[in-house]
Amino acid sequence: MHVGLAASYLALAFGGLYFIYALKYYASTLIALSVLNPENQLRGTLIQPTELGHGYPDQPFVSIHLPFYNEANVARRIIDACIDMDYVNYEVLVADDSRDQTLDALRDSEYRISRPILKFIHRRDRSGFKGGALQQALRYMHPDAEYVVVFDADFIPPPDIIAKFLSIFARAEGRGKPVAAVQGYQLHYLNKNENWLTKGIRTEYSGSYMVERVAEEALGAMKMVSGSVFMLRADALRSLGWTTSITEDWELTLRLYLEGYRVVYTPLIQAAAEIPSTVSRLLRQRMRWAEGHTYAVRRYFWRVVLSTRMTLTEKLEFMYFAPYYLQSLFFMLGMALWIVSEVYRRRPPFWTPELGWGLVVSNLLAIPLMGLAGVFLEGDLREDYQGVLSFIAIGYLVAPYQAYAALKGLLEGEEGTWIRTLKTGNITDSFIGLKFRSLVKWLRGLGLTNDWGGEPARVEAPLPWAPVRRLLMAACVVLMALPFLDRVPPLVDAIARLLLSDSAYAAVWRMTIE
Amino acid sequence: MSKHFAVEGGNLYIFTTGTDVMLNLNSFPRELDLFEADTSWRVSPWVAVVEDVLHRQLDRAQIVLRLHGYEKASLPKGALESYFVDGRGSIIIEKLLAGRLPAPVISLDAGDES
């Protein structure tokens, strides 16, 4: 076979494979735009938090676990946020592996007299990484604990977050499979305007948390416990425990589903967080995710496929998610091979330029459009739309590294090591949206200052909801159909000929009408 | 109300009951390496635990603890661990202390023992 022709077939295969992902992204965008309204209320779903929890008499005991590793820049911020919850019956447990000044915060005698109960556990080594630290927290957790909440050190949870998590558990109880965990939105926002990278990652998270996961929830698909901002049932966690994987959250997710539990996601429980602000930090983080994710997929693949406790939809989501960190590589390989085939001018007989370009454009815009929809749904489109360009660049930047790490995870005998993502404690942004105002008030109450300089941020007139929403939905539909648009005129023509021009068919048509 | 320490199973337990507040962990010299990075330790509002404490650390730690009014006690490790986890064993700890400790030593600076 000619090189050009082989390249064209391979380009089509890789492009088609990525197009399956793209279709899901477009469908997710359509679903999220359909179920979320301008007040960010979720129509017809169970994942709308309520105000339950303020002073209700039988508060279940909640244990907040904070895994630390050299968090000197943010340690006091997260501890102070966690001891200031609008909730009474809880404890805060710091599982610390630090070697730096984080220990100064842990030794602070002020924390001995705080309410709620505050426990610090310091390990002299990092055995088991974050999972190992969280297992220590589990070991020393209060025996009355019914729920566990986990936050990474760079997050700032709002005071009502425990009550909101509990309200989701209460609403989901008795409906379908038992809920083991409720995952909230990791609102990567605090330093979003630090540089081009943070702007892009902000958009990426928005697409993932406001669109993709909302659609997964609406479809009843498998949802991930994502490392931070989630509440777990303590009995489920006690029975399963944490593992020492470098993606302990993904492995826990798989084990929960294999035990017959499910995870519920809601974008309306949010905790603000810091965004990795350098390329090296981002690459290290994404490579760890890719390696650990793929390693766990390899270990659990057949158990998931053969599980009798998982639904078909959950298994399909797992199958979709299995090669997740290779998808960018599919796209890049597809593009490169398509260029080769164009140079040689060799194509399969059914190939048309419209199909090729349609596939490229549709694949290229799927994730950016999801990001745009995400920031639109958060009411930040006017401010954050530039992040989409950075987001596209980041996609290309991380793809080869992620692909390498994913292949490593697929082939290696033992999982690699955990490389931490440094948290700087930088805050560059105010919160403009209505849903963030209570958080802003609370942050100010804590004495945290940032670039807003004491003056409230200027609130611009909101974008007209309905037209922008319709525009985004129309863009989704057009882009989904784009690779096949050249097939539409011949199809319409054929139908027209069939029904109107050909006398025999026209007669049949008229008879049918009459 | 009491302030005590115990050495059980190789661990040093520093604990308080009632309204007594836990000793400031910075009271220990840094070179003693008790509440530092290279040691496994934990602390709750009532109990501080240093794991696998060495003799040389223990000798000097006892001096610091006694200077701050802490008395040595001998209690089951399980009771101390349980007290660390839930803090509910305050009464049990006090009963255990009452049963096992020697008669209280009256110090000259107590002030009200005339």
Write up this protein.
The complex is a heterodimer of chains A (514) and B (114). Chain A is an alpha/beta fold and 514 residues long. Helix content of chain A is 53%, strand content 10%. Chain A has 18 helices and seven strands. Chain A has helices at residues 3-35, 75-82, 102-107, 129-139, 161-172, 196-219, 234-240, 248-258, 279-305, 312-321, 327-344, 353-377, 381-384, 387-411, 437-445, 465-481, 488-501, 503-513; strands at residues 62-68, 90-96, 117-122, 147-150, 179-188, 230-233, 262-273. Chain A has a seven-stranded mixed β-sheet with strand order 3-2-1-4-6-5-7, with helices on both faces. In chain A, strand 1, helix 2 (75-82) and strand 2 form a beta-alpha-beta unit. The radius of gyration of chain A is 25 Å and the shape is globular. In chain B, strands 3-4-2-1-5 form a five-stranded mixed β-sheet, sandwiched between helices. The radius of gyration of chain B is 14 Å and the shape is globular. Chain B starts with a strand and ends in a 14-residue tail after the last helix. Strand 3 (117-122) of chain A pairs antiparallel with strand 3 (41-43) of chain B, so a sheet runs across the interface.
Encode the helix/strand succession of chain A as letters: HEHEHEHEHEHEHHEHHHHHHHHHH
> Distance N terminus to C terminus of chain A?
55 Å
| Biggest sheet character of chain A | 7 strands, mixed
Shape call of chain B: globular
Q: What proportion of the residues of chain B is helical, as a percent range?
A: 25-40%
Mean pLDDT of chain A: 85
Oligomer: heterodimer
Distance between the termini of chain B: 21 Å
